[in-house]
Amino acid sequence: MSELALDRQIDRSKMKVSDEVAIQISDMNKWYGSFHVLRDINLTVNQGERIVIAGPSGSGKSTLIRCLNALEEHQAGNILVDGTELSNDLKNIDKIRSEVGMVFQHFNLFPHLTILENCTLAPIWVRKTPKKEAEERAMHFLEKVKIPEQADKYPGQLSGGQQQRVAIARSLCMMPRIMLFDEPTSALDPEMIKEVLDTMIELAEEGMTMLCVTHEMGFARQVANRVIFMDAGQIVEQNEPEEFFNNPQSERTKLFLSQILGH
Amino acid sequence: MSDISFVRTEMLPQKDPPASAVGVVGWMRANLFSGWFNSILTLVALYFVIQLLMGLFHWAWVPTWSAASLPECRDIFEQLGRTGHNAGACWGVIAERWPQLLFGFYPNGTEEGTVDQRWRPILAFVLLAVALAPILYSDRVSGKLIYFSGAYPFIMPWLLWGGTIWTPVAVALGFVVGFVVYKWLLKSTSELIALIVGVVSAVLWWMFAASLLSSGLASIMPLALEPVQSRAFGGFMLSITIGVVAIGLSLPIGIVLALGRQSDLLIVKTLCVCFIEFIRGVPLITLLFVASTLLNIFMPPGTNFDIIMRVFIMVTLFASAYMAEVIRGGLAALPTGQYEGADSLGLNYWQAQRLIIMPQALKISIPGIVSTFIGVFKDTTLVSVIGLFDPLNLTNAIRADADWNGLVWELYGFIAFLFFVFCFGMSRYSMYLERKLQTGHR
């Protein structure tokens, strides 16, 4: 098991869960063709929560968070994000997407634009931010992820860990209220995983609402306030990290944990 | 202490590679003489290349540039002691006829009562270079020149065909009308309705208002060039004109068709697929025959739809279908992550296409796009089958002259050389562009 070798104490002072609801999913179902990939998902996420979604591959965890910004379409049930309902209305979808940041396994940076242009593109075109202001904000967030000196390079010239941190900065430039992470460290070398996790921890320390699909159980234990275990398209178990890891209830969870923590 | 234990105490410095592996020697060893078999092949190939070049040089390097006819060339060869079939090239035909190979029968002032008008195509092509500069070399040329590029499509036909200047102005105003209507409606209605009404109003303008306006303005202020009939167009001027129009229009139409083919809207998709597959399934010559003969049957009697205009439309449609497929290839090569990245940031469809997808898809498709361009440019010689005097058709006219009857190599060689210059230029530009747009591996 990869425990986080953190060289500092995590500051929990701002990690407060408010009563305000950020995301509400009720009776949500999704099919790929005739395959029932998400089954009766009910989940309420409050503002400020840090949720880690774990589970074996093919359990629907990525599909679940991709439904939250309509990268995947759900066929039944409701999803409310920040009070806006996800429906087929393109205006609602674009509004939600600009409020919800997303970080992908393969970064999905735009290779034909510089790092700075990657970060300013959406604020300029979607939010109509003046270019100068957008660039200042982009540099602010690039400093935050500790790579301001790479601003004029192209994504192809950066290492995987740096690219992923740029991807995080790019999402932050839209000033999102919720961040979704879809296996952000799965495509990275072990040496680079830590720098990305550090960035995510800093984000958590500032009170960002985060939903992370990840296999980094150390991160789950130390940062998350709730761990959700999914299998076969269903939420099997959810609990606080201490309880989840030390005292899993369902047999499926026990098997999963014994396999990933066993060696 | 065990044998497998090892600790490096100092790191090794970087050394130079061996001399035989780098530089000219290294290159020759790797590429020409990498083994006895390859060495023999190199020497044999060199022998044949040298023989070929010497033969070509012997044929081409003859003082026949001022000869006025083929018999005169033969006299020169006799004086030089050369005999036989391959005695040498008779360049007199090129010296005498190259203006015709370039301009066809464009008025050159030799006929009674006419003025030499050939400055017009020359100026049009010089201005073409100016108009292309900001597009081809956007990083080195002032961006303001792009306004001239926008005006050029209206200047070029006026220079080539002549007539009153108010016709292109009235046509250009149609675009302005459409755009103003679109912008004005955008405030109150949806984008799609504004677009449709904008296009309709521009078309109405061209159908009813444009000719009235141009003839009215022409009677007030007659600014006109001598009109030139399409039948007088010929030579490389004709090839380049058709090529430029087809190339310039096929790229945007191809992009729209490629996007349409990928669309979720069933009717749009079906229309695009049908169009592309129909055009790709029909030879260009067939389309040109349709343009030159059959189209008249469907027109109301008395209408005269310019023959070059018909060729423009057919060649452009033909090139667009191929272009659409080339661009679709580029779109398919993009990882879905690019679409998702754009979507997740809240960019709408057109923003994502314009800012993220198209710049990358077009970059991937550069080799295919330029191949299509080159193919279209060479295909313009097919217009000879419907009686237009492209360079190849002109060779027949030239050989019909008793002075030059029997010449083949010099004429075709000269035409091939000019085509090669243009096509090779396009090919080199595409390689330059690929290098310029290279932004590291993905």
Automatic annotation (TrEMBL), chain A:
CDD domains in the cross-refs: ABC_HisP_GlnQ
Keywords per UniProt: ATP-binding, Nucleotide-binding, Transport
One term of GO molecular function: ATP hydrolysis activity
Identification of the protein by name: Amino acid ABC transporter ATP-binding protein
Gene3D superfamilies: P-loop containing nucleotide triphosphate hydrolases
Pfam families per the UniProt record, alphabetical: ABC_tran
Residues annotated as domain ABC transporter: 23-257
Signal peptide: none
Family per record: Belongs to the ABC transporter superfamily.
Automatic annotation (TrEMBL), chain B:
Alphabetized PANTHER family for the sequence: INNER MEMBRANE AMINO-ACID ABC TRANSPORTER PERMEASE PROTEIN YHDY, MEMBRANE COMPONENT OF AMINO ACID ABC TRANSPORTER
Lineage: Bacteria, Pseudomonadati, Pseudomonadota, Alphaproteobacteria, Rhodobacterales
GO biological process: amino acid transport
Residue ranges crossing the lipid bilayer per the database entry: 36-61, 119-138, 167-185, 192-213, 233-259, 271-295, 307-324, 364-389, 409-427
UniProt-listed CDD domains: TM_PBP2
Keyword Transcription regulation carried by entry: no
Keyword annotations from UniProtKB, A to Z: Cell membrane, Membrane, Transmembrane, Transmembrane helix, Transport
Gene Ontology CC: ATP-binding cassette (ABC) transporter complex
Record InterPro entries: AA_ABC_transptr_permease_3TM (IPR010065), ArtM/GltK/GlnP/TcyL/YhdX-like (IPR043429), MetI-like (IPR000515), MetI-like_sf (IPR035906)
Domain of life, per lineage: Bacteria
Subcellular localization(s) per the UniProt record: Cell inner membrane; Cell membrane
A Pfam family recorded for this sequence: BPD_transp_1
Span of domain ABC transmembrane type-1: 236-430
Molecular function via GO: transmembrane transporter activity
Nucleus as UniProt keyword: no
Bilayer topology: Multi-pass membrane protein
Record protein name field: L-glutamine ABC transporter membrane protein /L-glutamate ABC transporter membrane protein /L-aspartate ABC transporter membrane protein /L-asparagine ABC transporter membrane protein
